[in-house]
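From the pipeline queue, job 12 of 40. The input is one protein chain; the requested action is below.

Action: predict structure.
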Amino acid sequence: MSVAQEAATIPAPRTPSVRKKGSNLEKWGWIYMRASGVLLIVLIFGHLFVNLMTGEGIHQIDFAFVAGKLASPFWQWWDVLMLWLALIHGANGMRTIVNDYVGNATVRKILIGSLWASAGFLILLGTLVVFTFDPCLGVTESSSLWDVCQSA
């Protein structure tokens, strides 16, 4: 083989490593990203439609509107599902970016651990806020909500 032919030869691809037994987390992460993306489109556009297109549109959004929505179990679960899917979807996307661009294994593990810890914390906090929201908490006599909260 001449030098010119050798330079034009494409090197052989890396030999694939032997696949470990068990679940393929990368495959399930890939599937999750597609499924959650489709579901998030429905949830987000439904959220935007109800908040911006029905009733008085953007003018209806105030504390009372949010309190009314969060009093309904349907909207609580809608918002929690949107929250969980969005945070896990975003953290998984960031995990993919970290895996692609961070070469040091220790730094990669720290960053990925931080991603999942922050996503878990925000999921926990957001879920607690949605299910324990009380519009009358801390309302005093000088508040405009005083009469509403006293009648409830």
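Job complete. The CA atoms of residues 100 and 152 lie 54 Å apart.
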